[in-house]
Design brief:
This protein has 369 residues and is α/β, with parallel strands linked by helices. It is built from ten helices and 15 strands. The chain binds pyridoxal-5'-phosphate (PLP). Keywords: Aminotransferase, Pyridoxal phosphate, Transferase.
Length: 369
């Protein structure tokens, strides 16, 4: 059993993926070809954001967003230590200080009630992370940001396709704050066959700045009006994402249904594990199916021996990683510490079978008895 099954997806989409790839090979516009614009239009429409700017990765999306906002040395950006390194890494690489605020114990998402205590005159932005496919309490976070004149950048690398119902009504991840950043890394909910990512915003000036930064700060060919990067997404990768969109709505439905099935099986098993909290105003599209368990290593070994792969997202909070110790500021983060010791992700992908879930939960039950 694979941890994430990308092969079945490929087989299901093979004719369309190959047609799309061949089309790029025929027209030959490998950089900024027509598929780039087509994908940007499709994704903007999907999220409801006015603009989508595709970029070379989710990491680059975070970097370009902060460059467009003019964040740099002397500034602080508030985020969570319980995330993939790229989130805090990009804050650090532009010379700003990552400020770590703890997560809620059950959802593993940044705790909005703890954000205000971390704000200083240097704070410029809040970067909530939509971990495991569930968005944060965006109404609360946007309200804090508005009160203090900060920008909210959603790190939506794991949540493209997730829904949140807030004050504005029903909305899609990536369009719940001023900026949303996602990743098309193969294992993410919407993946390509390499690296890719996208930034979403409805602010025209920011969108223009991001487009320029993506191509070395050019406002016109060889006219460099700002410092930028080489951050374009390949035409071929855009073509692959376009093909994958044909099946994406079905895949989101599958993720929701499989998450519900996992929950049902795990609850019925009556074993000493804790399920991830999911708030009623949003869904979780389960980029990872993550549970919390004690004696994690023993449990993992038993699953491994039965041919069931697992993963840990993430074993050490970023405020405890050597690279961040001296360049970040951290509030008390006891929930992140606890989560890092107990989280464990089980196999998850839209093509996972009900029978797989039954087997996984049965094996887990055996491991915990
Ligand atoms: C994957 C991921 C990123 C980085 O995306 P890449 O496309 O791999 O650069 C950033 N933040 C989070 C939370 C992620 O899961």
């Amino acid at each position: 059993m694979p941890f994430i099954d990308l092969k079945t997806q490929y087989r299901a989409l093979q004719p369309e993926i190959q047609r799309r790839i061949n089309q790029v090979l025929e027209h030959g516009q490998y950089i900024m070809g027509p598929e780039v614009k087509e994908l940007e239009e499709r994704l903007a429409a999907y999220t409801g954001a006015k603009y989508c700017i595709t970029v070379s990765s989710g990491t680059e999306a975070l970097l370009i967003s902060m460059m467009a906002l003019g964040i740099g040395p002397g500034d602080e950006v508030i985020t969570t230590p319980f995330t993939f390194a790229a989130t805090a890494e990009m804050i650090a690489i532009i010379g700003a200080t990552p400020v770590f605020v703890d997560i809620e114990a059950d959802t593993c998402l940044i705790d909005p009630g703890k954000i205000e205590a971390a704000i200083t005159p240097k704070t410029r932005a809040i970067m909530p992370v939509s971990l495991y496919g569930q968005v944060c309490d965006m109404d609360a976070i946007n309200a804090i940001a508005a009160k203090h004149g900060l920008t909210v950048i959603e790190d939506a690398a794991q949540s493209f396709g997730a829904t949140y119902t807030g004050k504005q009504g029903k909305g899609k991840s990536c369009n719940l704050s001023t900026i949303g950043c996602t990743s098309f890394f193969p294992s993410k909910p919407l993946g390509c066959y390499g690296d890719g990512g996208a930034i979403f915003t409805s602010d025209e000036n920011l969108a223009q700045a991001m487009r320029e930064i993506r191509v070395h700060g050019q406002s016109a060919r060889y006219r460099h009006t700002r410092i930028g990067v080489g951050g374009r997404m390949d035409t071929l990768q855009c073509a692959i994402v376009l093909a994958k969109l044909d099946r994406f709505d079905w895949e989101i439905e599958q993720r929701l249904a499989l998450g519900a099935s996992y929950r049902q099986h795990l609850t019925q098993a009556g074993i000493p594990i804790e399920l991830l909290g999911v708030r009623p105003d949003r869904d979780c599209i389960w980029a990872q199916y993550t549970i919390m368990v004690d004696q994690r290593e023993t449990v993992r070994a038993t699953l491994e021996a039965a041919g069931i792969p697992t993963a840990i997202h993430y074993p050490l909070p970023l405020n405890r990683q050597p690279a961040y110790e001296n360049i970040s500021r951290s509030m008390d983060t006891p929930n992140s510490e606890q989560a890092a010791k107990r989280v464990m992700s089980l196999p998850m992908s839209p093509d996972l079978q009900e029978t797989d879930i039954a087997l996984i939960v049965n094996t887990l039950k055996g491991a915990l008895q």
